[in-house]
Amino acid sequence: MNSCHSLNRDTLTSLDVPLPENIFANSPVFVPESVLKQQQQIITAIESVVALSAYQNNVLTYAPETALFIPKALGVFFGYDFHIDEKGNSKLIEINTNAGGALLNALEEPLFQKITKAFLLNFQNEWQLSSNYSIPLKNIAIVDESPTKQYLYPEFVLFKRLFEQHGIQAIICAPEELRYHSQKLWYENTSIDLIYNRLTDFSLQEENQKALMIAYLENNVVITPHPRAHALYANKRNLTILSNAQFLGEMGVDKKTQNILINGIATTIRVEEKNASDLWSERKKLFFKPEKGYGSKATYRGDKLTKRVFDEILVRDYVAQSFVPPQTQQILINDLVETFKFDLRAYVYNGKTQLTCARLYQGQTTNFRTKGGGFAPVFFES
After folding, report:
1. How do residues 51-80 score in pLDDT, each as one tens digit?
2. Domain spans of the chain?
3. Distance (Å, rounded) from C-alpha 254 to C-alpha 251?
4. CA-based radius of gyration for the chain
């Protein structure tokens, strides 16, 4: 089979679809090497807590029914998003379990061949964990709602190429294009072994995903990432446990791990009627996020929050998080020096960081609408 040598940065210019505007920033980001080490410490500490039955029993009480099914797959491309505070310390803002952009960012890296090989091995490992080890992975479906209309659709095309270069048939489709019968999930006349899940309905409970959900619950297709991964890691309500010393102590978490998490996660609490008065008075120090949100949708900086919107938040499932202002970087745009904010995203598999990128932006939250902003490579300075 062809090696990853044929999939590199030059591939971007040969896509059958154009790259969207503002996907790549005009500048890399430079941070101390200590940041990388600190972030991996935080990730490892979170993994140790997530493995506890006491933690799982707690978070699964507010998880969808599909999250109660225990698959063998681990989940590809967890995205741990960090800000760096004014003292230079990493603060985890949130975890995503279908974080996009990993392959696009890999193609901007000097070690892209090694990284893309690791990405491929992630999927092969998901298959081997979930099936008979001797049976090769033959077919992958990359699934999202209206995939050709997605901002990161070019990445789907790149993944398709990567899989096919290694002898794995790959298709890109919407969930309603899949059918389940004869104990197999089908796309037209092709039975699907594994789903690379890019859907944002993390529970798989929408009507057009019924075939996908049944095949998954009957253990006749591998889905990665899957509903249980989201329930254990990515529901933002989980951060109210992971950043709370009392909860951690009650679960038997050792003091060293507690300290890593308390210092490394932006303090997060649930928004409830009983603490509404305190939250409103402290709002300028807070950031409000929906528990099951994604992509900065329906998030609010407290200092921009109106009383009307706050009252709406009170009757929804929201968390309030200590506001950690993002660090900034100066970039030359059209002969003018402009200030950009940035966050850091660690792409993680099985608890190990495989790639770290930055997202440069202007405005309230990360976005891909800022000219000169977008994904940026990160260089760690010793």
Report:
1. 999 999 999 999 999 999 999 999 999 999
2. 4-236
3. 9
4. 21
